[in-house]
Amino acid sequence: MATYKEFHQYSIEKPNEFWTEQAQLIDWKEPFTQVCDYSRPPFAKWFVGGKTNLCYNAVDRHAAKRPNDRALIYISTETDEEKVYSFAELQREVERMAAIYKSLGVKKGDRVLIYMPMIAQATFAILAATRIGAIHSVVFGGFASGSLATRIDDAKPTLIVSSDAGMRGGKAVPYKHLLDEAIALAEHKPAKVLMVDRGLDKEFSKVAGRDVDYATLRDQFMDARVECEWLESSEPSYILYTSGTTGKPKGVQRDTGGYAVALASSMKHIYCGGEGETFFSTSDIGWVVGHSYIIYGPLIAGMATVMYEGTPLRPDAGIWWQIVEKYKVNVMFSAPTAARVLKKQDPAFMHKYDLSSLKHIFMAGEPLDQPTHEWFQSELQKPVIDNYWQTETGWPMLAALPGVEKTPIKFGSPSFPVYGYNLQIFREDGSVCGANEKGIAAVIPPLPPGCLSTVWGQDDRFVSTYFTLFKDPLVYSSYDWAIKDEDGYFTILGRTDDVINVAGHRLGTREIEEAIQGHAAIAEVAVVGVEDKLKGQVPMAFAVVKDPAILSASPEAKERLAREVIAMVGKELGAIANPSQVHFVLQLPKTRSGKVLRRSIQAIAEGRDPGDLTTLDDPSGLEQVKQAIADQA
Questions:
Q1: By C-alpha distance, which of 562, 588, 583, 582 is closest to 628?
Q2: For the chain, how many helices (H) and strands (E)?
Q3: In CA terms, which of 318, 357, 459, 544 is 20 to 30 Å from 16?
């Protein structure tokens, strides 16, 4: 058994041999003739000439061997539905959906835009697209019309698949009026809209000649058989939009073969999940984690995957652990935000259920702070493994690899560079940082299999966005500050644009948040840089308190807590990092994927318009920030 270091070194020094071995984890219709074509840097093509299909690897090959094993476990605590699909049943449903697509004129290379809640039909819709060689583009359900319209114009879908409504916290969130408005705003008009009617929005409007009903068409294609379309490895499988700094959306384009191999290898070496086991990711199909580790990764590995519509608190804070017990979940994947939500609840919920099947839980989506990491692991009594990656990479860049070597967990650190990534920390002049020296995390190309192959329809933007940090060396920039300790463990310190310049001192907001998080009364915190005439910028903190009673306490008690918090920052980082003000709130404004809307908080603190709030989950977080600032004023 190789050590982590040997395994990683082999992947960097002998990539052809390494990736040829990993490629055996998936099925190929035709073998590849070249491992990597890097003749046009920074563009890389993996497994050139090989033909495969993502849907075949996720569904058909398992249905042939283990037809009755569980494949998809659909659970909604919003509508109180649970349904388990075997691999054979999943294949039938995917073929029915694929037959519907073909009847609506969808061909290989056409785009299918999916605007859906977390329901089983969304899984069928995604897999049916890759089955017939169409390119799916999932847009988070409930996303605002304007943002959806720009994605429709960029992807130019032949077909849009949607639903009447999603559900959140027991309330229906209607989708159809948002979709109709988006299509009206968009220059590109899809030929057809396929509607899955859940009966949640009885009033939703139907456009004659364009909108078609899923249930009606499914009845027509109950016995349909649709063969897989074999794609050359570099042909696109999907487009996933990520926020850009300019108006035009940035469509991350994913290939087919490289992505399948990267995911299959990650299931073995990182997540340690195998055939017949169960994987539960609490993400959403609208995000990259949902693509890689709700849909494709677990199914490619022959695991059952849990698709969950609901929150971590409904009907109570034990729901996730109840699911673990009931379905004998072996591997779990969640986000630091969720852990911080659970931290505010009674920990008894985490000890109420039998978690003996669970090997470990992985966390990603934003930096996992040390206090939360430590708390979560001690409560669960299971390894909590932080991993770091981006929409662009499609799978982890930094992680422990328990499938290779069980290395010690360091709280607050996502461990080491994953195999295939020649990831270093660079100074701003392009030289490599030493131990404990802060710099920018970047990857020396070629990027490994599974990462974005380009920006959809904008090759020039792929180069200008990601590969222009230095003239020499050519690197893929993560746009994240990082630091590596003397043992080789990495810590992500936040975005390069999350830096506060206080009187010429550059401070990462993550470092200040980490210090504040160490206070026993604080559950969560966001720090933003606010304009200051004297110092340029000063840090301002918005802290979520564990005990809501603090908010109605006397001004003196709040002032005392604020002073304690500031003192902690001074002790950890020096007085220069002290927040100018500490505001106490019950919740922070977040996106539906749990990312804190720091830019909006900063804008409000500076008296500006908070900007685009299409991904805002709950408006009350933003109101609390406004109120806290008004109260202080």
A1: 583
A2: 20, 32
A3: 459
Distance CA 367, CA 365 (A): 7
Instruction: With H, G, I as helix, E, B as strand and everything else as coil, classify residue 185.
Output: helix
Tell me what pLDDT residue 439 has.
94
Contact 570, 611 (CB under 8 A): no
Q: Distance between CA atoms of 66 and 443, rounded to whole angstroms? A: 39
d(CA 441, CA 167): 38
Q: What angle, rounded to 10 degrees, do the helices at 120-131 and 87-103 form?
A: 70
Q: Where are the beta strands (DSSP E) in 256-321?
A: 278-281, 304-309
The rounded distance, in Å, linking the Cα atoms of 6 and 631 is 57
Instruction: List, for residues 235-255, the tens digit of each pLDDT value.
Output: 999 999 986 544 577 999 999
Residues 6+ apart with CB under 8 A from 555: none
Residue among 560, 521, 572, 569 nearest 541 (CA): 569
pTM (whole model) above 0.85? yes
Distances from the Cα of 204 to the Cα of 113, 164, 196, 197, angstroms: 19, 7, 12, 9
Return the percent helix, strand and coil in the chain, to nearest 5: 35, 25, 40
Query: 456: how many CB neighbours lie within 10 A of its CB?
Result: 25
Helices 370-380 & 509-517, crossing angle to 10 degrees?
50
**CA neighbor of 383 nearest in space, from 290, 271, 262:** 271
How far is the C-alpha of 614 from the C-alpha of 633, rounded, in Å?
A: 28
Q: What's the half-sphere exposure (Cβ side, CA atoms, 13 Å) at 143?
A: 25
CB 590 within 8 A of CB 565: no
CB 603 within 8 A of CB 622: no
Query: In degrees rounded to 5, what are phi and psi of residue 309?
Result: -105, 110
Per-residue pLDDT, 553:
85
Tokens read off for 317: 């804070």
Residue 569, CA distances (Å) to 367, 487, 514, 575 in order: 18, 26, 9, 7
Nearest to 167 by CA among 335, 365, 314: 314
Burial (0-12, 13-18, 19+ Cβ within 10 Å), 533: exposed
The distance in angstroms from the start CA to the end CA of the chain is 62
Q: E strand or H helix at 51, and its extent?
A: strand 51-52
Q: Where are the alpha helices (DSSP H) in 523-611?
A: 555-573, 598-605
| Cα-trace Rg, the chain | 24
Stretches where the chain sits below pLDDT 50 are: 245-246
| 540 and 625 Cβ atoms separated by less than 8 Å | no
For the record, the structure tokens of 333 come out as 């994947």
- Among 492, 480, 413, which residue's Cα sits nearest to residue 442? 480
pLDDT at site 246: 47
Q: Which two tokens stand for residue 382?
A: 């299971």
Distance CA 207, CA 218 (A): 20
Which residues are bridge partners to 52 per DSSP?
231
In the block, residue with structure tokens 């990656």: 389
Per-residue confidence (pLDDT) for residue 245, from 0 to 100: 46
Q: Tell whether omega for the bond before 347 is within 30 degrees of 0, i.e. cis.
A: no
